[in-house]
Write a structure and sequence with these properties.
Shape: globular
Number of strands: 20
Number of helices: 14
Structural class: alpha/beta
Helix content: 25-40%
Largest sheet: 8 strands, parallel
Bound molecules: alpha-D-glucopyranose
Radius of gyration: 23 Å
Mean pLDDT: 96
Length: about 500
């Protein structure tokens, strides 16, 4: 916990910056981001004005899924450094008043986790196998469940039994009906809380409990239903008991520790159950991320999410990009829209999650060479789905250095495109840059308070106020009049005092 702060539900209004550790900053020159590199760049994050950072997994891992395949939940992978490097990074972040949230991956372990190795060795019917979801030998898999990464969700072992993996075969699903599993994760939470972390981002928080009897879905292309319709392997009522137990652990520590769920549920109200007062503090708002650039759809999404969160007294969260989704400059099709979307998001009540590099306006890298791609989505789809490497390309820090300063040696685990003009060094101090837009927005945002009120507005214009700001976003095809007030920030020029298409303005 940062020393100078009095705990006060800081997470309710925080800006939390996601760090994909492997691609943020490389301190030892091997072309892979690490904890030393991250520590050295913390002053940049302080100057950006974030309240907290969320680190994607840096635990011991064979890196089949970028570290979301954990082989040891209590140690740092040598790729990223050591526990001592973690402690030093945490202390340095806290000294700058930046809180630190770590990822926890409870739905599955790595197939190289000692538990899975002993489950394979101990054989069918063993206590060791009961920690995972094994089913007896048969010609056909036990049901029709599909892996989120493509293909079926079952793999056969040498002795004929099947085991479940909702993701890669290297990520066997744990059996959360097993008492060892529950006790182990409670202990892992305490391990990191004792070290001083401020909270957790819970990976696949909707996945741990499966419907009794593992019933088939009944049709293929199940991933298309994710977040829209009930599935027997997601969002089962039993997950909530786990979070009630975890909340008690979090609350037993001083310093306002929190947890945010990566949860997909079929309605905003089902999602709100994860953030009931005795469960988790926040859940990601993927409806906002998925909403198209349409005033009507954005307004409907914002209203539904605020209402659902209000119904349980939780803050809403907002997110435009993360390490699993195409970067929003590319999704929206223009840097101008991305800038306007950022001002929209940062004016809304609740917490905002940023993804590293969005403050530089980085686009998705669409033309990575096939042999550089590492995402299992690419491999399991037989190369038909490019996967998520395009949003994970290492950051450009300094236009004048090899690998744009990502590493000291010019190495980079994924090749970077020509990003000289987008490097942080090229944007710093340039008023019209993405970086300065984000810096100013984050500074001003601290003064905004309270819920939002919509104003009547022309078609395809979003116009709302909350304490401290009026935000107007023009999603129509023609310029509109800027309402009365003094302009404190805009995402683009305002020629003749009018708000052009795809532009946002903050007024007082
Ligand atoms: C989450 C992570 C994603 C990972 C998956 C499996 O969705 O965000 O990166 O591949 O879980 O752990």
């Amino acid at each position: 916990m940062p020393s100078s702060d009095v705990p006060s539900n800081w997470w309710r209004t925080a800006v939390i910056y996601e760090i994909y550790v492997r691609s943020f900053a490389d301190g030892n020159g091997d072309g892979e981001g690490d904890l030393i590199g991250l520590r050295e760049r913390l002053p940049y994050l302080r100057d950006l004005g974030v309240d907290a950072i969320w680190l994607t997994p840096f635990y011991r891992s064979p890196m089949v899924d970028g570290g979301y395949d954990v082989a040891d939940y209590r140690d740092v992978d040598p790729l990223f450094g050591s526990l001592a490097d973690f402690d030093a990074m945490l202390a340095a972040a806290h000294a700058l008043d930046i809180r630190v949230i770590v990822d926890i991956v409870p739905n599955h372990t790595s197939s190289q986790h000692p538990w899975f190795a002993s489950a394979l060795a101990a054989g069918p019917g063993s206590l060791e196998r009961d920690r995972y979801i094994f089913r007896p030998s048969s010609e056909e898999p036990p049901n029709d469940w599909e892996s989120i990464f493509g293909g079926r969700a079952w793999t056969r072992t040498a002795d004929g039994e099947w085991y479940l993996h909702l993701f890669d075969p290297g990520q066997p699903d744990l059996n959360w009906d097993n008492a060892d599993v529950r006790a182990e994760f409670e202990s892992v939470l305490r391990f990191w809380l004792d070290r001083g972390v401020d909270g957790f981002r819970i990976d696949v928080a909707h996945g741990m409990v499966k419907a009794a009897g593992l019933p088939s879905v009944g049709h293929p292309q199940q991933i298309g239903l994710l977040g829209r319709e009930p599935l027997p392997y997601f969002d089962q009522d039993g997950v909530h008991e786990i979070y009630r137990a975890w909340r008690k652990i979090l609350d037993s520590y001083p310093g306002d520790r929190m947890a945010v769920a990566e949860a997909w549920a079929s309605t905003p109200l089902r999602l709100a159950r994860y953030v009931a007062p005795d469960e988790l503090h926040q859940a990601f708002n993927f409806d906002f991320l998925a909403a198209p650039w349409s005033a009507a759809q954005l307004r409907a999404t914002i209203d539904a999410c605020v209402e659902a969160a209000d119904s349980v007294g939780a803050p809403t969260t907002w997110v435009l990009s993360n390490h699993d989704k195409a970067r929003h400059v590319t999704r929206f099709g223009s840097p101008g829209i991305a800038r306007a979307a950022a001002l929209l998001m940062l004016a809304l009540p609740g917490a905002a999650y940023l993804y590293q590099g969005e403050e530089l306006g980085l686009p998705e890298v669409l033309d990575l060479p096939d042999d550089a791609r590492q995402d299992p989505v690419w491999h399991r789809s037989g190369g038909t789905d490019p996967g998520r490497d395009g949003c994970r390309v290492p950051l450009p820090w300094d236009a004048s250095l090899p690998a744009y300063g990502f590493s000291t040696t010019g190495r980079s685990w994924l090749p970077q495109p020509d990003w000289a003009s987008l490097a942080a060094s090229a944007q710093q101090g340039v008023p019209s840059s993405f970086l300065e837009l984000y810096r100013t927005a984050l500074r001003l945002r601290r003064t905004f308070t309270g819920p939002l009120t919509w104003h009547d507005s022309p078609a395809d214009v979003l116009d709302f106020s909350r304490g401290g700001v009026r935000c107007v976003v023009n999603l129509s095809g023609a310029a509109v009049t800027v309402p009365a007030g003094s302009v404190v920030l805009s995402s683009g020029d305002l020629p003749d005092g009018a708000l052009p298409p795809d532009t946002a303005v903050w007024l007082r």
